Fold this sequence. Notes:
10 helices; four-stranded antiparallel β-sheet; alpha/beta; 29% helix; 23% strand; eight-stranded mixed β-sheet; Rossmann fold
Amino acid sequence: MTPSADVPTLAVSGLTTEIPVAGGTVKPVDDVSFEVGRGQIMGLVGESGSGKSMTAWSIMGMVDAPGRISAGRILFQGRDLLSLDERGMRALRGDRIAMIFQDPATSLNPVLRIDTQMIEAITAHRSVGRRAARDMAREALAQVGIASPDERLLAYPHQFSGGMRQRVAIAIAMLNRPDLIICDEPTTALDVTIQSQILAQMQALCREAGTALVWITHDLSVVAGFADTVAVMYAGRIVESGTVERVLRQPRHPYTHGLIASVPSHTSNAPRGQPLPQIPGMVPALSALPDGCSFRNRCARATEVCRNVPPLEMRDGRQVRCFHPVMEEGA
Length: 331
């Protein structure tokens, strides 16, 4: 049965993930909320260590002990994933929900041929014969730009380059046309031509099959031309979210503003040869976050009130977690 269009494919609310460390706990995911509708693409953006990947692992139910999800809800087509046991999650993973990892070694078995892995991924969830499954696998490899797919199906992962292994992992994730795909920087190791091909194929899948897509990246240029909405993470929290048009053209959070200002652009008014603006300082360790706003030690707009945690509030058609948002137009 097709889910109602009124129900988001994925609705994350107040998600908090804790990991015990010496002297206490850290929260790599802290009160994270967002929604992705059917056929929608959301970019999840932030620097390394901001909590993007841990958010994905939490949604997939792959947080290893002693880490745990301590609060929140994860609704997939209205069904709370946190209420499912491991068997229930396994039935969804690879079928209705798929994840593409940054490192293909995470998802490819080094001792099994590619055809074995792809055919098993199909027959584990669908009642089709091996010949039909093999035809589907061959077609999937061709769609991600792998030449001579019949020959490549007989190869082992170590016989592929890193970029080709990633393309195989992407093909496997797309085999069953899942309702939700979470992509953790999957095109980082690919050249620009193949990256463009994969992005176009992902967009087509979302349009044709209604697949919801969460694309995790640090590359704002990919999000600008690919996603419908964007959520910006910093130190485990979402600090700004909304449509790509609103957030990237007129960023309100100082962190988002700094990220966009540091990206080279042909439309920039900066004199030629001048260094790009940089956000001062470094991302703090999760075990040493400042009180209140995690960004305040790097922010020129911070005041005493920033020692409190700012709420995520609706401002100018997007959500912003800041007491002193940037309000000038064309920022």
